[in-house]
TrEMBL record:
Species for this entry: Enterocloster bolteae 90A9
CDD domains per UniProt: CAP_ED (cd00038)
InterPro entries documented for this protein: cNMP-bd_dom (IPR000595), cNMP-bd_dom_sf (IPR018490), HTH_CRP (IPR012318), RmlC-like_jellyroll (IPR014710), WH-like_DNA-bd_sf (IPR036388), WH_DNA-bd_sf (IPR036390)
Name of the molecule in the record: Crp/Fnr family transcriptional regulator
Gene Ontology biological process terms, A to Z: regulation of DNA-templated transcription
Pfam families from the UniProt entry: cNMP_binding, HTH_Crp_2
Domain named HTH crp-type: residues: 153-222
Residue ranges of domain Cyclic nucleotide-binding in the record: 33-121
A GO MF label: DNA binding
Amino acid sequence: MYEHFSIPGESCRIPFADLCRRNSEFRTYFIRKTYDASQCIHPQGTKITSFGIVETGILKAVDHTRKDAEMCHAYFEARDIFPEFLYFSGEKEYSYTLAAEKRSTVLWVPVQVMEEMLEKDRQLLYALLLYVSQRGLKNQLYLNCLNYQTIRERIAYWIVGMHDIAPAETIRMPGSQLMLANMLHVSRSSLNQELKLMEKEGYFRITGHEMQGWDKEKLEELV
């Protein structure tokens, strides 16, 4: 007989990172560290001993080609956690180099503590499942963008996809235009030019780090 798994509806609205930080029972085990821009936090091959929660700034997962060109695989912004995919898939070491893209603060939670927290708190476990699911959908979205040839098509597909993953009136832009350019595999200058043209043509409005008033029907015509 399986035990009924019940989760309060309100728990869906609280991000995993926020639930973790509110945990009073295990808070004394958390360690907060700040890193300067471009600082290497964990070289590839470092043993995974803690989960990280980004509080401020941006981190990136990178490796280098034979010609020492940096290849960025993922970014971690505020409220993101890592390296959940590696750890829960059985990896014990970082498969990439973790570095700070900007000055960043990270809250570190030892893996043994995180496991105990998840075992005791079903609301936290459910929030983690939601986070991992959304992160996976976003990663797949960026991969699917590469099926489109033009920058305009990739932008349109990204906007529609982000809205489908988390429906809202606004879409939060990445922390920098370079981040979005890397995710879409285009140059920053080309992306900037196309965003300005599309905004002028009424596809959307960009205010600060938010994209608003997009015309979904018009965007879907591009993809």
